[in-house]
Task: structure prediction
Amino acid sequence: MIRPIEHDPMFLAQKSSAASKADRQVGQDLLDTFQAHRQNCIGMAANMIGQLKAIIVIDFVPQPLLMYNPQIIQHADPYETSEGCLSLEGKRPTTRFRQITVVFYDQDFNKRILKLSDLYAEIVQHEVDHINGVLI
Ligand SMILES: [Zn+2]
Result:
């Protein structure tokens, strides 16, 4: 189900709790809402649809990638950039890493480890900030 986008910075500043198999509907809603905003959005976290669960989705080839409980376990090669956010107005400067390794659970709750670089890495870092209550 497509959910409205949350814009309240007080709400978005809260930390999300770990997701479980019981939160699959939240994951599906996140995917549906992401698809509806795909023209101007490359990633989304569950708190952006009002759910404080550690679930994110990123634009990925061949299809959007849903991640439950993503954790960045390695990062390298920092750079300065600025990012916009569907939940917030404007752009803000931030430091990101060109290479990351992320551990997460996929839609079937299988544990996966992925090495990502450049834009994919940047999106994951932005969305993981969201689940930690960090607004960029
Ligand atoms: Zn954002």
Notes: The helical segments are 9-12, 24-36, 118-131. The chain has one domain: 9-131. The two ends are 26 Å apart (CA to CA).
